[in-house]
Design a protein that fits this description.
The complex is a heterotrimer of chains A (about 280), B (about 525) and C (about 350). Chain A is mainly alpha-helical and about 280 residues long. In chain A, about 75% of the residues lie in helices and about 0% in strands. Chain A has eleven helices and no strands. Chain A has helices at about 1-10, 10-30, 30-35, 70-105, 105-120, 125-135, 140-165, 170-175, 180-220, 230-240, 245-270. In chain A, helix 10 packs across helix 11 (about 245-270). Chain A starts with a helix and ends in a 5-residue tail after the last helix. Chain B has two domains: about 25-235 and about 495-525, Periplasmic binding protein-like II (D-Maltodextrin-Binding Protein, domain 2, 3-Layer(aba) Sandwich), CATH 3.40.190.10; about 270-490, Roll (Dipeptide-binding Protein, domain 3). In chain B, the strands form six sheets. A four-stranded mixed sheet of chain B has the order 1-10-9-8, with helices on one face. A four-stranded antiparallel sheet of chain B has the order 4-5-7-6, covered by helices on one side. The longest helix of chain B has 19 residues, at about 1-20. The two termini of chain B are about 40 Å apart. Mean pLDDT of chain B is about 90; it is low at about 10-25. Chain C is an all-alpha fold. Chain C has two domains: about 1-85 and about 300-340, no CATH class; about 100-290, MetI-like fold (Orthogonal Bundle). Helix content of chain C is about 75%, strand content about 0%. The chains are: A mainly alpha (about 280), B alpha+beta (about 525), C mainly alpha (about 350). Chains in contact: A-B, A-C, B-C. At the B-C interface, helix 1, helix 7 and helix 13 of B face helix 2, helix 3, helix 7, helix 9 and helix 12 of C.
């Protein structure tokens, strides 16, 4: 772990990634301290100072009801990160367990599980998430459920492929010979070999989860106002282009920075851990 | 890569070549929210109304610059008792198919509207039947005396019966599908414009009807492209670059402001729509009149109007005086409604609920982003008198579902309501009569015998002056009962390039008191 | 060839099973969405009788399985029901809107391969140099923002400020071409109108590029990492030791094997574009199917939701089969049987 970190800081690209992600995480953690108007996260109106271009003290300008855009962008990182963590925390274990079972057990289990996975995979992710969001009410929790529902099959596929090739390996056969339980083989023998791939994919996916969530809120299905959300900010702000450019540009940049940072690290990790596609 | 560049260059050349010889015919380009519904019996929203008013004609149309209605496809009409109306049709009108207009067509159009039961058919609930007396005389028989009947006729487009009968598709009964499949992509009217092509999601292209019975003036646009679903930023850019003539009314005030600053003209339509903030009178805290009065006094009407201002002269809202927009029959003159924090606090003190115990859910319709700003304004206003409200966004579909049960209906919801026919009855009856409760127009669930009686009287009073008094009384009663905050009268504001002039939307003396009627393309003038 | 066809048939069979699964899933989701579709379809002022009649017509009060049965029976006749959004048969709507989306997605896919692959190859051949770093950085940027952000940025820059490309639509107002296939590029050619064709291309470039950007990035990154990995294989080192020309090594030994895993992922990506095309269609007022799909979901237009999702999923499956076939052509050793499972 430590060694990995050291290597990451040596490569210029991954170093940039570390710095960007560091900025994102720190600003999310210390949002209350670094933002000038923490109250503007909620329903505050200041019609004397609305739709203003960047100026001091509103360095990103103000939104259409006079709230500080910088404050709202920084707080929006919190929501994005929470969403990323929760989605992956649910999707990965589910996807991995199904993938292991299908890959190792084979037979009808494999057929049924993989067809189920195919069903979910063959509905385009946004369409699936939208249908679910339409069904439930558009809230943060439901947003997480929707994104999770579209995410797990990718981990199933990944783990399934590894598990299928690993199950013929000597160490698995040896474990079978000693009479180790199926659960033991799946989770204690095969799973550790999947970990590097999973971790790499998770780092890369973190950025994509943020992207998908922002696409959902672009369609009006995301986090609900007044809670700040990057996707909705871009979507809302896009109506006011090109005149009120700051409404779109800063939230857009914020998405770009976060996703870019995670991608850079993920890419570097893939090389360091020697994970193939 | 080089081949791509070459293609681009070719395209650019092609595009510039086109500009050279494109000014022989005039094109009017405008946009509306999707989807464009061609079937006139299903028309309900603004886009549909624009299509209907241009492709079809009605027996009567609103008078220009004043209240009242003139005969149009009818040459004259009369009623002795207010229960039967006899219309003499013009004899010089032909459908676009060439068929002459007859009384049969009118009867068919009415029957079709009622049979399909969609769109604005509810305006004719009180009509028992329509019958052809002879080829050019139609008699409508009403169930009871119904004063708004003539105004409702502005929403009964006359369809070419013979053409529809030639194009029936599968369905049950004599009339099969009543021509629904055909009329969803074709027109069968007498209108000044005819459909060239129609894609409900992209655009409807219309051209002048050369045989129109009133002759379409030469300055009116030759071709009209009504586009659907353009983003605000797209419209803003297109107009600035001279590739679009009239925007929809759904542009946010800031965008209208930028366009006006770039030299666009602002067209307006007034007196047909009001913005209502609806209070659920069946649930705490707004089942208590004092609490309702408190919030009606707490709301900052002036800031609300300022919030939607476009320029010093033009705003998307103007101060409201009561339950009806200024200019409509029964609207109150005098002082607009005003904020009064002291009074709000007095009423709140008399309310049986304590502000700290209140759970107020303040919703806005997701499809109308402007309402979010009103929600935030209210939240701040109410906080000042100690009421904490929680803002919630509600998609339209969910909202219209929730209001069907009083217990699911939010404490506060926001709705823009427009009179489909220009008559106060269509606004007030559907909103405040106790029998109409539980639709998107009536989430108040108001039950008041006096209001009911007045609204019923308004329907059956034929004398105009008398009617005005009835509606004024109803208006005052509603202000006292405070089922809604009468937030502001809405003005529809459209940004337009200077290539077109639209007297009906810029000169009050030429305006029509009917939403969408100003978009009669034959009354527009294109500048070369 | 016979094993080839047998396996193809097997793949098609599996796809059919998946498609049935998709229809069940989406059918179930669509039915439990809150809101009365009949009421929404008829508008807020429709009479209660009209709503009841429509509910009956749509079998909304029947049990789930009964409804699904009606659906399958209609589907067998090629009937997906009436869209409550446009009041037309869903099939008519799909036939009208699908070509616009397909055209957009196909051109994007083309850009993805035509720009992404060369960038990836170049990056791998110059691995570790500044060329590599720059390409990786730029392609990574492409992946790091959603398509709608790129769409907005490109439109602002090239249509609003530079005025090089048109802002919206598929064809200039002054041009009309009879619609035959719905594919503007083909229709204009069929009409023999080269100027119109150029105009259609001119309208297509920005939206397609905005949609392709993340795909280009993905493709370049994949090809690069796969090739870099291949470069570390002993046989390449051997070839290098023998003094084979670098270009030949790159093309023959490094690129080919890395093409297969890349192709699979590119196929998935390409299919995913069908779903995310909406974001771009919205910005460029592109009258496509994805936009229709979002509108019908928001309107709870059951027939149209089911129809649209089914069509998009079917496209997705078809693309995947095509990719599998391509892979088996490139490398006959990888037989369809292996990939089928």
């Amino acid at each position: 772990m430590k060694k990995t970190l050291v290597i990451l800081t040596r490569n210029p690209l991954s170093l940039i990634g570390l710095i960007l992600v560091g900025i994102v995480v720190l600003s999310a953690l210390f949002a209350d301290v670094i933002t000038p108007f923490p109250a503007h996260v909620g329903a505050v109106v200041d019609f004397a100072n609305f739709n203003q271009p960047p100026h001091w003290p509103n360095i990103f300008g103000t939104d259409l009801v006079g709230r500080d855009l910088f404050t709202r962008v920084v707080y929006a990182y919190r929501i994005s990160l929470i969403l990323g963590i929760v989605v992956l925390a649910i999707a990965v274990p589910i996807g991995v367990a199904i993938g292991l079972a299908a890959g190792y057990l084979g037979g009808w289990t494999e057929y049924l599980l993989m067809r189920l996975t195919d069903v979910f995979l063959s509905i385009p992710p946004l369409v699936l998430a939208m249908s679910i969001m339409g069904l439930l009410q558009p809230t943060l929790t439901n947003g997480m459920i929707a994104v999770t529902a579209m995410w797990w099959p990718w981990y199933t596929r990944l783990v399934y492929n590894i598990a299928r090739s690993e199950k013929e390996e000597g160490y698995v056969l040896a474990a079978e010979v000693i009479g180790a339980s199926k659960l033991h083989i799946m989770f204690r023998e095969i799973l550790p070999n999947c970990v590097p791939s999973i971790i790499t994919k998770m780092t890369l996916d973190f950025g994509f989860v943020i992207l998908i969530a922002s696409s959902l809120s672009f369609l009006g299905l995301g986090v609900q106002p007044p809670t700040p959300d990057l996707g909705s900010m871009v979507a809302e702000g896009a109506k006011y282009l090109p005149d009120s450019w700051w409404l779109t540009v800063f939230p857009g940049l914020a998405i770009l920075i976060a996703v870019f940072g995670f991608n850079l690290i993920g890419d570097a990790l893939r090389e360091i851990l020697g994970v193939d596609q | 890569m080089t081949s791509v560049l070459k293609t681009i260059a070719a395209a650019l050349l092609a595009a510039t070549a086109f500009c050279a010889h494109a000014n022989a015919e005039t094109v009017l380009r405008l946009d509306e929210s999707p989807v464009g519904e061609l079937d006139p019996a299903k028309a309900s929203d603004y886009a549909d109304s624009i299509l209907m008013f241009n492709l079809y004609d009605t027996l009567v149309i609103p008078k220009q610059g004043q209240p009242g209605y003139d005969p149009f496809l009818a040459a004259s009409f009369e009623s002795a008792d207010g229960k039967t109306y006899t219309f003499k049709l013009r004899t010089d009108v032909k459908f676009q198919s060439g068929h002459p207009l007859t009384a049969d067509d009118v009867v068919f159009s009415f029957d079709r509207m009622m049979k399909l039961g969609q769109g604005l058919s509810y305006l004719f609930e009180n009509v028992e039947k329509a019958a052809a007396i002879d080829a050019s005389t139609v008699k409508f028989t009403l169930k009871t005396v119904y004063a708004p009947f003539i105004s409702a006729l502005t929403r009964l487009p006359i369809v070419d019966k013979a053409l529809v009968l030639q194009n029936l598709a599968e369905g049950e009964g004599d009339m099969k599908d009543w021509g629904q499949a055909y009329l969803s992509t074709h027109t069968a009217g007498t209108g000044a414009y005819t459909v060239v092509s129609h894609n409900p999601q992209e655009e409807t292209v219309m051209a002048k009807n050369a045989d129109y019975f009133l002759k379409v003036p030469a300055v009116a646009p030759d071709t009209v492209r009504l586009r659907y679903g353009l983003e605000a930023a797209t419209v803003r850019t297109l107009i600035a670059q001279g590739e679009h003539e009239i925007s929809s009314q759904w542009l946010p005030p800031e965008v209208l402001k930028s366009l006006a600053a770039d030299g666009a003209q602002l067209l307006t339509e007034k007196g047909t729509t009001e913005f209502y903030i609806k209070l659920n009178t069946t649930k705490p805290p707004f089942d208590d009149l004092e609490c309702r009065l408190a919030v009606t006094y707490a709301f900052d009407y002036e800031s609300g109007v300022k919030m939607v201002a476009v320029s010093d002269q033009v705003s998307q809202g103007s101060p409201a005086t009561g339950a009806l927009p200024v200019g409509m029959l029964g609207a109150l003159g005098g002082e607009p409604l005003k904020r009064d924090v002291e009074k709000a606090k007095e009423h709140l003190a008399k309310c049986k609920y304590k502000p700290e115990d209140m759970k107020v859910e303040l919703t806005w319709i997701g499809e109308v982003p402007l309402e979010e700003r009103f929600a935030l304004l209210m939240q701040a206003n109410f906080a000042e008198i100690g009421i904490q409200a929680e803002v919630r966004k509600l998609p339209w579909a969910l909202f219209s579902e929730q209001v069907s049960k009083p217990e699911n209906t939010p404490n506060i919801s926001q709705v823009f309501v427009n009179t489909m026919s220009g008559d106060p009855d269509t606004l007030l009856y559907s909103m405040y009569h106790s029998s109409a409760a539980g639709t998107w127009m009536s989430p108040e669930y108001l039950k008041d015998a006096e209001v009911d009686a007045l609204l019923e009287k308004g329907r059956t009073t034929l004398d105009e002056a008398e009617r005005a008094k009835v509606y004024e009384a109803a208006n005052k009663r509603l202000i006292a009962l405070a089922p809604s905050i009468f937030a502001q009268d809405q003005t529809a504001v459209f940004a337009a390039s200077n290539k077109v002039s639209v007297p009906a939307l810029s000169d009050p003396a030429k305006a029509f008191a009917l939403a969408g009627f100003g978009f009669n393309f034959r009354l527009m003038e294109m500048k070369q | 060839m016979s094993p080839f066809f047998r396996l193809l048939a097997k793949r098609l069979g599996t796809s059919l099973i998946v498609l049935i699964g998709v229809s069940l899933l989406i059918f179930a989701i669509a039915r439990v969405i809150p809101g009365d579709p009949a009421r929404i379809a008829l508008g807020p002022n429709a009479t209660a009788e009209a709503v009841l009649a429509l509910r009956e017509k749509l079998h909304l009060d029947a049990s789930f399985l009964t409804q699904y049965g009606y659906f399958l029976a209609d589907l067998a006749r090629g009937d997906l029901g009436i869209s409550l959004y446009t009041n037309r048969p869903v099939m008519t709507d799909i036939a009208q809107f699908l070509p616009a989306t397909l055209e957009l997605v196909l051109v994007s896919g083309l850009m993805m391969v035509a720009i992404g692959l060369p960038l990836g190859i170049l990056s791998a051949r110059r691995r570790g140099t500044w060329v590599d770093h720059t390409i990786r950085l730029v392609t990574m940027l492409g992946v790091s923002a959603p398509a709608f952000v790129w769409a907005v940025v490109l439109m602002l820059a090239f249509s609003y400020f530079l005025k090089i490309f048109p802002i919206a639509g598929r064809l200039s107002d002054s041009i009309t071409v009879p619609s035959m296939t719905g594919f503007m590029l083909i229709d204009t050619l069929l009409a023999g109108n080269l100027r119109a064709f150029a105009d259609a291309v001119w309208h297509l470039i920005l939206p397609a590029f905005a949609l392709a950007l993340s795909g280009i990035g993905q493709a370049a990154r994949l090809v690069r990492s796969n090739m870099v990995e291949t470069y570390e294989r002993p046989y390449i080192e051997m070839a290098e030791a023998y003094g084979f020309p670098e270009k030949r090594i790159a093309r023959r030994y490094a690129f080919r094997p890395s093409l297969i895993p890349s192709l699979t992922i590119i196929g998935l990506d390409f299919a995913a574009m069908l779903g995310s095309a909406f974001l771009v269609e919205a910005v460029y007022a592109w009258p496509g199917l994805s936009r229709y799909g979002v509108a019908v979901i928001l309107r709870k237009d059951l027939n149209a939701i089911v129809g649209t999702v089914l069509i998009i999923s079917a496209m997705f499956l078809i693309v995947n089969i095509i990719v599998d076939i391509l892979v088996s052509i490139i490398n006959p050793r990888i037989r369809l049987s292996q990939r089928a499972s």
